[in-house]
Amino acid sequence: MDFSQTKWFIDRATTNPFDRSIDFWQLTQSLRTSEDEIDQADWIEAFLSRADASMPVRVAGGPNDDLLSIIPPADTVCEAIRLNLGSRRPSSRQDASALTVSSWTERFHEKTTSAEKAVKRMKSGARIFIGTGCAEPQLLVKRLAETGQRLADTEIIHILSLGVAPYAEPKFKEHFRANSFFIGTSLRGAVGQGRADYTPIFLSDIPRLLRSGRFPVDVALIQVSPPDEHGYCSLGISVDIVKTAAEVADMVIAEVNSQMPRTLGDSFIHANDIDLMVESNTPILEYVNPTPDELSRAIGRQVARLIGDGDTIEAGIGEIPDAVLKFLTDKKDLGIHTEMFTDGIIDLVESGVITNRKKTIHRGKIVASFCMGTRRLYKFVDNNPLIEFHPTEYVNDPYVIARNDNMVAINSAIQVDLTGQVCADSIGHRFYSGIGGQVDFIRGAARSRGGKPIIALPSTTGDGSVSRIVPHLDEGAGVVTTRGDVHYIVTEHGIAYLHGKTIRDRALALINVADPKFRPWLLGVAKQLNYVPPDQAEPRLRFAGYPEELERTVTLKNNLRVLFRPVKPTDETAMKDLFYSFSEDTIYHRFFGVLKSMPHSRLQHFVNVDYDDRMGIAAVVGEPGSEQMVALATYDLEKSTNMAEVAIVVHDDWQNLGLGTELLRYLARVARQHGIGGFTAEVLADNPRAMKILHKTGYPIESKMIDGTYQVIVRF
Question: Which pLDDT value is given to residue 565?
Answer without folding.
Answer: 96
